[in-house]
Amino acid sequence: MFDGLDFETAGGEALALVGHNGAGKTSLLRLIAGLLVPAAGTISFDGGEADTPVAEQAHYLGHRDALKPSLSVAENLAFWRDFLGGEPTDCGAAIAAVGLAHAAELPAAYLSAGQRRRLSIARLLVVRRPIWLLDEPTSALDVKGQALFAGLMQEHLASGGLIVAATHSPLGIQTREMRIGAAA
Amino acid sequence: MTALGAIIRRDVRIALRVGGGALIGVLFFLTVVVLMPFAVGPDLKLLQRLGPAILWLGALLASLLTLDRLFTADAEDGSLDLIVMSRTPLELTCAAKALAHWLAAGLPLIVATPVLGLLLNLDGTASLAVMATLLAGTPALTFTGMIGAALAVTLRRGGLLMAVLVLPLAIPVLIFGVAASQAAITGPVPFGTPFSILCALSLASLVVGPFAAAASLRHGLD
């Protein structure tokens, strides 16, 4: 799919992957996340925890929200916090940060697409990881939600984090663009 | 450990909630066993002789019924990606998921067995024997079935394929499960021999199942 792709990015920087549909933005993110195995080449991460694969230091926010409809908002988040090895903190703060405090006890089945997206963004806050891999993160978010998420990304970058996002629409933060695929 | 505890808690909780599927298995088991005396007729001797086989067959089919969703549900909503990425070894996660499935879907079958045994003219000892063999044998069904469930993830409508793949592995469990129950009820073979083989099958599947399922999940990622 890719040939001769060589790029690097550093902490505090957001890299926006742009390209036409099918250019391989999602595939590249999944490669970094370790969900696809590269046919050739390497992906490496300096700093962070030594001897830990990139995938384990990254958050992957894909097209699908990884939520269970029969569990409540708080239960969904608490599960990912425990499973991904987060500090056993209260999820309330993260739920409030994405503006879902009023729905914390509702089953996730009742959430709208935008609210589901907000809840999966809360997952990024409840477990700290230096790398955020975001696939069309702002789709389904309303204008307020996009502004809120831009603020959260800004905070993540300010604390030395790194963002790689595949996107068509501007994220609302300072990004470096990388175009992949043939220019169409 | 927190991670594995979290996944067991989550899966059991989902299974027990409305639409979760834990009850489907028990209801299916109940239906099969309740209908059987009507089909076989009122011959109490015959029912007693067929009893353990009917209970085992019902339990086997009931535990396969819900197993195909073990990984598919997680694959569909994207949870599987995060599970594969996480630092918890995938083999352990698979084992935890199978354990949760057994707790939510296998254990209720065993609890229901003595009640259903009454319908098949099984006395106390016979019911206890069947319960013991189910307790020893159903983990083998879940852990080998998990391999099929992991293979079915990559295929749409993989349920049928799963049944075809898993049933051959379930046959030895069925043979020794029924043999041990019969031995306890009528003899002449001592109960211990087939029962130990049944335990061995379960223990082997506890080891092989998670590794095979994890390998298949890793291979099937797209």
From TrEMBL, chain B:
Compartments, record wording: Cell inner membrane
Xref: InterPro entries: Cyt_c_biogenesis_CcmB, Cyt_c_CcmB_bac
Mitochondrion in keyword set: no
Topology relative to the membrane: Multi-pass membrane protein
Residues annotated as signal peptide: none
Top-level taxon of the source organism: Bacteria
Membrane-spanning intervals of the chain: 21-40, 46-67, 99-120, 126-153, 160-183, 195-217
GO-annotated cellular components: plasma membrane
GO BP: any one term: cytochrome complex assembly
Function description: Required for the export of heme to the periplasm for the biogenesis of c-type cytochromes.
Family statement: Belongs to the CcmB/CycW/HelB family.
Record's protein name: Heme exporter protein B
Organism of derivation: Rhodopseudomonas palustris
Taxonomic lineage of the native organism: Bacteria, Pseudomonadati, Pseudomonadota, Alphaproteobacteria, Hyphomicrobiales
